[in-house]
Write a structure and sequence with these properties.
The chain is an alpha/beta fold and 344 residues long. Helix content is 41%, strand content 16%. Helix 7 runs parallel beside helix 9 and helix 9 crosses helix 12.
């Protein structure tokens, strides 16, 4: 039995029969987590406010197996407190994926980002404290909390000096989760994600990362636009690997109170990522470079690669999918569904 099968068996034993809550569960990462939890035998409650620009879509759960034990609450974790309290009551595990992810949008509407990524989560933590005091909560955060890397790969000891409002708010959100773990007994774990891609990612919403934009252009046979010289490097992680880390974080007692980077051993230039994406879609349009937009340049962090040694040591987690294989899987997902603009 391989490592992946051993890990799956371990999490299945831990999750079967548990009550799991997924915030943002109609979105990209959240919906993939719901599918995995159902496969592990959990009872799942989804909370999603369906904020229009965040990419949530009920269709992301339409292909759950018949009889899946999933209940969906359309609710805001900040304001719909009674509905959220009912949803989280007696939860064993909470995968907290809700939030705003656009760095650019956070600079344009900083107070809104504060509401979505800090105030909402503080209200949610208060609800958990009152109604699910024994829960383990796994927060998905971002590598953006580090700002511009001083060295690569970036480990968890790297200074946190965000270059945008989103990074500052995500860092504050992390600290609130860890504080509630220390002071109120919640089992809190923070995962700092790098660039995530894969099935169920909304391809048309702006601000959800460069990878869905690349996939969209490749599927349409259009040129992929790179800002600058295209030589910035990224480590990209398939959503299946991210969900693996989420369930491991939720079921590993030693993870309680810890923060983990999720990264990938392959560091690719944006140009190479664009080439592989186009090839997966059989697009011959290629890529071209454009000068940086001044607003985007101010918050660009340059090259990034995350050191995931801590996650490997404590969680037993490593990414299984190379980008070459993962992007083929991703493109095939949309092709099999005859994706076209406004079809998702």
């Amino acid at each position: 039995m391989g490592l992946h099968e051993v890990t799956s068996e371990r999490t299945r034993r831990a999750l079967t029969g548990t009550r799991c809550v997924v915030t943002g569960g109609l979105g990209f990462i959240g919906s993939n987590a719901v599918h995995r939890l159902v496969a592990e035998g959990a009872s799942v409650v989804v909370i999603d406010a369906l904020v229009p620009e965040h990419g949530g879509d009920p269709a992301n759960l339409a292909d759950l197996p018949a009889g899946a034990d999933v209940e969906v609450f359309i609710a805001d974790i900040c304001t719909d407190t009674d509905d959220v309290a009912n949803a989280v009551a007696d939860a064993d595990v909470v995968l907290n994926v809700a939030g705003q992810v656009s760095h650019h949008a956070s600079m344009k509407e900083p107070l809104r980002d504060l509401d979505l990524n800090v105030r909402s989560h503080l209200a949610f933590l208060e609800t958990l404290r009152a109604h699910a005091p024994g829960a383990t909560i796994v927060l998905t955060s971002t590598r953006q909390v580090y700002g511009r890397p001083r060295y690569l790969p970036v480990d968890e000891e790297h200074p946190t000096q965000p270059v945008d409002v989103n990074g500052i708010d995500k860092l504050a959100c992390e600290q609130l989760h860890l504080l509630y773990g220390q002071q109120h007994g919640l089992g809190a774990v923070v995962l700092r994600l790098t660039n995530v891609y894969g099935p169920r990612q909304h391809l048309e919403r702006e601000g959800l990362g460069f990878l869905p934009v690349f996939v969209r252009h490749a599927l349409l046979g259009e040129e992929i636009v790179l800002f600058g010289d295209g030589e910035q490097r990224r480590d990209c992680v398939h959503v299946d690997d991210v969900v693996d880390a989420m369930v491991l974080a939720a079921t590993t007692p030693e993870a309680n109170g810890e923060t983990f980077n999720l990264g990938h051993p392959d560091s690719l230039t944006l140009r190479r990522i664009a080439e592989l994406t186009a090839a997966a879609a059989a697009s011959s349009a290629g890529a071209r470079t454009e000068p940086w937009d001044e607003e985007l340049l101010r918050i660009d962090i340059g090259s990034f690669q995350g050191d995931f040694a801590k996650a490997k040591r404590i969680l037993g987690w490593s990414p299984h999918l190379s980008f070459e294989d993962g992007i083929v899987d991703t493109v095939r997902y949309y092709q099999d569904r005859s994706w076209s603009p406004s079809s998702t």
